[in-house]
Amino acid sequence: MSQRLKLTVAYDGAAFAGWQSQAHRNTVQDTLEQAFQKISGTRIRVHGAGRTDAGVHALAQCAHVDLPDRRLSPERWTNALNSTLPPAIRILRCQFTPQNFHARFSATGKLYRYRIWAAPILPPLEFGRAWHISSPLDVDLLKTAGKKFVGTHDFAAFAANRGKKEQDTMRTIWSVQIRRSGPRIAIEIAGDGFLYKMVRLMVGAMTQVALNKMNVDEIVGWLKSGHADGSRFVAPAKGLYLVKIWY
After folding, report:
1. I want to staple 122 with a disulfide (CB 3.0 to 4.6 A). Which of 128, 132, 175, 210 is the partner?
2. H helices of 14-115, where?
3. For a pLDDT cut of 90, what percent of the chain falls above it?
4. What is the CB neighbour count within 10 angstroms for residue 68?
């Protein structure tokens, strides 16, 4: 009988074309599946909690696999995988779970963090880790815009097309918290679920307001109507981190 193993995975998204498996095999999911095959000698499918885009990072992505047996303990799987995987991917922990656990469908909420470096010069060690905005950014306006997203809304105007139309675009955002420390700005968004590129479109709209390029009332209008009346701005992938998944 197969045994389900839950993985908590961290990765630097800069080196990969996103999470989801693709023909060229340069994705996080593909790399994990290659590691499992190398260790076990058999093809094992990895199921992730969400499909992060190319360049998006994860501090605690969640996934599960069905193992053919319990030959290795969770601790040994953690060590074996980390000795096989490239340094840009690390398994933080493994644990056996009941068969009814599903990394994606059992999730009840997610927390994302978006990092901005608001200063004229971007330090080299922040390259690929934060969105560099050199123009003056009004953090009070950023916070005002962020508050408009809290609650249950139709986020159709804050979703990109993945190839097929989303059947349900209603989502609940529990909180939008913004902290500034010198040039570092962290935007943390927690909610029950997120549409394709939703966080990046939300941050894009918030920063346009903070740069006085957009009125905060436009965000309210888009949430009420379910569609964007003007052009939308997508924040770069490199500033986005999947921080936590609740079950």
Report:
1. 132
2. 28-40, 74-84
3. 89
4. 12
